[in-house]
């Protein structure tokens, strides 16, 4: 039974090698969004960050265990977004790691964690950028976490496997980040033939396809951390579930 | 039980990362965001990035140093976290 599943999984995975893209996938590069879009994405992202900071202060104030758990989520984003992993398209990309924070603390707080890592990478690594920060925060810190949180909420109803819902939430959240990146670039640079849709499709083939196996890895790694948390931090998980209003 | 399960998951993640290296031996595995950049150039040849990175790591070595630092800071905290709570639980159980 289990072997069959693994076999199915591997065959789908190998099919995927037939896609002949040799492309790269990461955040939007410094200066590569026109000024208009730079401003728009900053305006869209700022409210989420402000709400996130307020929620963070409320949940973590005077609670050392919540602070530790928040630190764990931030550290997870740090590690995962530093790992450039080879993908089947013959290029490298990195996971985002924001799924864990979104599942535990909600998408707004995950936005703040993403912001911190994106600033670190933009200033020290010339990866992403300060002018594209708004757009990158939106894709990695808002759209991805909202998708992850929504999927987690959807699947955690009823008696479905907890691990499966965590896996799907983190993996799809990761993919959504790069889908949104493609849309952001496509909207800013519409193709002469075919317009916005044509260039979004092209950017999707650049950014999103490479990401699929990495999204799977991110889902799996998030499950490991969650497994460990259920073993050692039951009380804190229950406390957070109460804050989220889980049933 | 949980430990074995986690080990199995880590193993799958490693396999997922190794397979591309084996199957696509000739690929470049570039990490730059070059292709999106190239494609923007074909879409809008006149487009000039209007802002450059304030500071860029002077070499690939320095860049990998900073990426390793980022990973080290992150994993350092993750293992501190689990060590702390593992010890706390054990003490409460005694």
Automatic annotation (TrEMBL), chain A:
It comes from the Bacteria. Keywords: Cell membrane, Cobalamin biosynthesis, Cobalt, Cobalt transport, Ion transport, Membrane, Signal, Transmembrane, Transmembrane helix, Transport. It is a multi-pass membrane protein. GO terms for cellular component: ATP-binding cassette (ABC) transporter complex. Pathway: Cofactor biosynthesis; adenosylcobalamin biosynthesis. The chain crosses the membrane at residues 35-53, 103-126, 133-152, 164-191, 203-229. Its main location: membrane. One of its GO terms (biological process) is cobalamin biosynthetic process. Belongs to the CbiM family. Part of the energy-coupling factor (ECF) transporter complex CbiMNOQ involved in cobalt import. This is Cobalt transport protein CbiM. The gene is cbiM.
Automatic annotation (TrEMBL), chain B:
The chain crosses the membrane at residues 65-85. It is found in: Cell membrane. GO terms for cellular component: plasma membrane. The gene is cbiN. It is a multi-pass membrane protein. Keywords: Cell membrane, Cobalamin biosynthesis, Cobalt, Cobalt transport, Ion transport, Membrane, Transmembrane, Transmembrane helix, Transport. This is Cobalt transport protein CbiN. The keyword Cytoplasm does not apply. Its main location: membrane. One of its GO terms (molecular function) is cobalt ion transmembrane transporter activity. Forms an energy-coupling factor (ECF) transporter complex composed of an ATP-binding protein (A component, CbiO), a transmembrane protein (T component, CbiQ) and 2 possible substrate-capture proteins (S components, CbiM and CbiN) of unknown stoichimetry.
């Amino acid at each position: 039974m289990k072997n069959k599943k693994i076999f199915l999984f591997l065959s789908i995975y190998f099919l995927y090698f037939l896609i002949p893209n040799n492309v790269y996938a990461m955040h939007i590069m410094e200066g590569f969004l026109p000024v208009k879009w730079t401003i728009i994405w900053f305006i869209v992202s700022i409210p989420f960050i402000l709400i996130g900071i307020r929620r963070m202060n409320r949940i973590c104030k005077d609670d050392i265990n919540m602070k530790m758990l928040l630190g764990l989520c931030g550290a997870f984003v740090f590690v995962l977004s530093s790992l450039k992993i080879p993908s089947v398209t013959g290029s490298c990309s990195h996971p985002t790691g924001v799924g864990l924070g979104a599942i535990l603390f909600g998408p707004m707080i995950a936005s703040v964690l993403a912001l911190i890592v994106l600033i670190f990478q933009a200033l020290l690594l010339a990866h992403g950028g300060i002018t594209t920060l708004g757009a990158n925060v939106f894709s990695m810190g808002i759209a991805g976490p909202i998708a992850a949180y929504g999927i987690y909420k959807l699947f955690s109803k009823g008696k479905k496997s907890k691990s499966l819902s965590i896996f799907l939430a983190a993996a799809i959240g990761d993919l959504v980040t790069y889908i949104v990146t493609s849309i952001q670039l496509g909207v800013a640079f519409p193709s002469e033939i075919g317009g916005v849709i044509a260039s979004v499709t092209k950017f999707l083939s650049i950014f999103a396809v490479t990401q699929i196996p990495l999204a799977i890895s991110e889902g799996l790694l998030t499950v490991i951390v969650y497994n460990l948390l259920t073993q050692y931090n039951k009380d804190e998980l229950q406390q957070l579930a109460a804050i989220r209003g889980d049933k | 039980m949980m430990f074995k399960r986690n080990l199995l998951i880590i193993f799958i993640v490693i396999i997922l990362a190794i397979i591309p290296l084996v199957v696509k031996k000739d690929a470049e595995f570039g990490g730059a965001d070059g292709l999106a950049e190239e494609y923007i150039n074909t879409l809008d040849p006149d487009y000039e990035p209007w802002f450059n990175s304030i500071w860029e790591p002077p070499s690939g070595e320095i860049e990998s140093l900073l990426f390793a630092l980022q990973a080290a800071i992150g994993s350092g905290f993750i293992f501190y976290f689990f060590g702390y709570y593992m010890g706390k639980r054990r003490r409460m159980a005694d």
